[in-house]
Design brief:
With 199 residues, this protein is α+β, with helices and mostly antiparallel strands. Helices cover 17% and strands 35% of the residues. Strand 9 (115-122) and strand 10 (128-131) form a beta hairpin.
Amino acid sequence: MGFFAPGDVALRREVLHGKPWLVTPTRVIVDEPDLLVVFVVPGTHFGFPTHHRPHPWQVKGSTHWRGNGKLQLHRPGDAYSVDLFWGGEERRFEGWYLNLQDPFRRTPFGFDTLDHELDYWVLPDGAWEDKDRVEFEAQVVDGKYTAEQGAEIRAVGVAIEEMLNARTQWWAPEWAEFEPDPSWPVPVLPAGWQDLPLP
């Protein structure tokens, strides 16, 4: 499957229990064999396919991305992305958010994954904390993840903690200086987005 060019729109789909759950059109920044970087442009609308388990954002009435956008760094095989956030009108860099998720799987129109709820917030000075651990454990009990998947996700968390404690992060700190092209239009969901097949 081919790579995307900078500026292309790639659909990030979350797939839960074999069915698309959340679809977000993203702007491709870098797509290379060892790194996929996409940007969620402010104002991007989410797509919520029909699913037996409504997405929490859908339940809360969250329809689009707010704020300064989000940059997401992915390495093939990693069960997490590294997301960058900026705050305020001056776009002050706030930190790195390690979002545990399925390793991304390429599709002809983007990539598929599934958020794993458990996350890590890393400040610019390297201090960190885990996020949503209670919610993650509740979702294991509730059946969103199997017991085996829960164990695998916890193991990824342990590996991330070891990396953060050793200060051996793999991503380039220069990504914190990223600025989106102001001429980019907000990506939109294509016609028929709900019917795009799974690989």
